[in-house]
Amino acid sequence: MRIILITGISGSGKSIGLNALEDAGYFCVDNLPPSLLRPLVESRLREGAAALAVSMDVRSAMSLSELPQDIRWLKEQGHDVKVLFLTAKTESLITRFSETRRSHPLSHRDGGDLSPTHRPTLVECIRREREMLADIEGLGQVIDTSGLSANKLRAWIKDLVGGTHAPLTLLFESFAFKFGVPLDADLVFDVRMLPNPYYDLLLRPLTGKDEPVIRFLDAQPEAEQLLGDIRTFVEKWLPSYKRDNRSYLTVAIGCTGGQHRSVYFVEHLATHFEGMARVLKRHRELD
Q1: Is 8 annotated as a binding residue?
Q2: Residue 164 pLDDT > 50
Q3: Is 65 annotated as a binding residue?
Q4: Which residues does the annotation say bind GTP (predicted)?
């Protein structure tokens, strides 16, 4: 059975992800205590189900320590298990809680009858939640949802869980350093030292996918050399990541605006590595 476990920080989009999986045909359960995961899987198997998605979060914090053992048991039973850990920058989480006007789950954890003046602040709750979930963050693919629209998050999750099962998914992501390094990046490469097409007025409105920008960067010897260095590095260490039983490896390429150079690099790298792993690409600032 295909099993997707969604966990992560409150406000990072777990409900949106679960809805996306439900639309994709998964039987979905929200806020399931880990202690009930095995009985649920066995029940769904008896009913002939092929796909199950479960959301777990800090509301079941007392039993989250059981999750690694449960994941190991599921894999030993032959199930195709993927874990998605959603997170976001604190400022993005604050904005989302402000927009929805909902309280953080941990704001009532130490006593529902506490007066508002004695409850922890939102920032304190977020900090505490990160500490409580630190041990399970590395169980699967980390997705940084900072600045993502709901539609884009749904599309990303469908991309990550779709397609034919492969030992490792290699994700190339372009980004702008001025908006911060993606939290889900495993490897980060900086290409800001290369000539910037932005300063050519004819190239400024284009992206690294457009032929004029591609020709501009193709003509830069430094760009070709750096691209070759990154290809060589990833090729050399990709087998080691596979041997480490990783499901995902995110390679982030950053430039100043996330529009030209980083996009160019991601497009070239994704094309080069097709066939070596299941390859995905995304352009954070263009998306």
Answers
A1: yes
A2: no
A3: no
A4: 57-60
Sign (positive/negative) of CA torsion 22, 274, 192, 198?
negative
81 is in an annotated binding site: no
pTM: 0.68
* Beta-bridge partner residues of 254: 175, 190
Does residue 133 contact residue 83 with C-beta atoms inside 8 Å? Answer: no
Scored b (16 or more CB within 10 A) or e, 40-76 reads ebeebeeeeeebbbbbbbbbbbeebebbeebbeebee
The residue assigned the tokens 């591609």 is: 214
12 labelled ligand-binding: yes
127: buried, middle or exposed (CB in 10 Å: 19+, 13-18, 0-12)? Answer: middle
Whether 11 has a binding-site annotation, put simply, is yes
User: In the chain, how long is the greatest CA-to-CA distance?
Assistant: 67
Q: In which element (H, E) is residue 55 found?
A: strand 51-55
**Residue 9 marked ligand-binding:** yes
The answer to whether 218 and 154 have CB atoms below 8 angstroms apart is no
CA dist., res. 202 & res. 286, Å (int): 18
**237-251 pLDDT, tens digit each:** 998 888 776 778 999
> Tens digits of per-residue pLDDT, 51-62?
999 998 887 766
15 annotated as ligand-binding: yes
Helix axes 221-243, 261-273, angle to 10 degrees: 50
Q: Is 136 annotated as a binding residue?
A: no
